[in-house]
From TrEMBL:
It comes from Jingyaoa shaoxingensis. The lineage of its organism: Bacteria, Bacillati, Bacillota, Clostridia, Lachnospirales. Keywords: Hydrolase. Gene3D superfamilies: 3.90.320.10. Residues 9-180 form the DUF83 domain. Pfam families: Cas_Cas4. This is Type V CRISPR-associated protein Cas4. It comes from the Bacteria. InterPro entries: Cas4_PREFRAN (IPR027616), Dna2/Cas4_DUF83 (IPR022765), PDDEXK-like_dom_sf (IPR011604).
Amino acid sequence: MEDLIIISNLNDFIFCPVSIYFHKLYGSQDNLLYQSSAQINGTKAHETIDEKKYSTRKSAMMSLDVYSEKYGLCGKIDLYESDKKRLIERKKHVRQIYKGYIFQLYAQYYAMTEMGYEVKELYIRSMDDNKNYKIALPEKDPNMLQKFEHLIEEMRTFNLETFYQTNIEKCKNCIYEDACDRSLNRGE
Ligand code: SF4
């Protein structure tokens, strides 16, 4: 069986594939050393979910492990409201709906569906301002679905040895910049 792709890595890969390497390397270390304050806030937002404190309502399922055989993906969902058949990915503060957010939801959606759950709606929720952004189901957005499938394919065939970052702005905003020998922001 081919290696499984971790759902949370979809977003990292879009930002920079090298960041996944550092994420794995530093993942078990003290987060304060490696995470910017914005990311720590984001992590805090997810702790409520990860520790299953969000709600005692039976209709709210949190941090469920999910797996898609079709796409070779695994990970956790954030929140599933079974009464509304709604899958929600919560973020600390959403300024913009990035492709990576949508693809994470798609991955969770396909995994949930394969596992027998019915999902009728997808949402990204911005916790700071309590805004909800409805995301079309992938079947309703063939263009995004094609991009999602292309991303999976790209991740499967990716070769770290031959990759070079070309966007210096990403390096400037990257929490791994100091440790990364691929950074374009060296010496600044
Ligand atoms: S410093 Fe640049 S090349 Fe290195 S992981 Fe960050 S974005 Fe990627």
